[in-house]
């Protein structure tokens, strides 16, 4: 398994741990982050996440979940841009969790963002919005199980915003999500990626 693949499946990657700093501009704010080996998108913000940022406006306020947070790019962007926000990032990669929490501390956002393992999120916790560049490469069945674990945690009126590559099945995922009771529309299509919005059952359109 290569370093690029390992982060999807391994809580403790084998690649030697080397930190690498990056700086990005998101929604008018500069984020100085540290990525690392054995973690998704080391040394840069990946294309899909850049499309997500470019094609959306920051949310207004609420409780947010960054699903598959990596070293925290999406969740920290929300925490920085949204004054009234509380963000939980969930990850299976312990190295990514460490980096995400270090990044939150260095940005002064530790009071608004925390990264943790999925089993550390209180079972009663609900979210106004879920934001994600979901781990499509874990396979369709595992991805479906992941989404059906977290989408029910949306509060009434909540939504999930996800970016998915067209060549990785974005259109079929959109149909599947709608079939599961989460009406899903395409907010944008750019550079081969779809930005999808899924609404919680009973939520206003």
Please explain how this structure is put together.
It contains 6 helices and 9 strands. By secondary structure, it is of the alpha/beta class. Helix 4 links the parallel strand 4 and strand 5 (113-116). The protein has a 7-stranded mixed β-sheet, sandwiched between helices. It starts with a helix and ends in a 6-residue tail after the last strand. The chain is globular and about 40 Å long.
- Secondary-structure-based class equals alpha/beta
Beta content: 25-35%
Main beta-sheet strand count, sense and barrel state = 7 strands, mixed
Categorize the overall geometry: globular
Number of helices: 6
Distance between the amino and carboxyl termini: 43 Å
Give average pLDDT, whole number.
Answer: 91
The helix content, as a percent range, equals 25-40%
The main sheet orders its strands as 5-4-3-6-7-9-8
Q: What does the radius of gyration come to?
A: 16 Å
Unreliable spans are 1-9
The number of E-state strands comes to 9
Task: Provide the succession of SSEs.
Answer: HEEHEHEHEEHEHEE
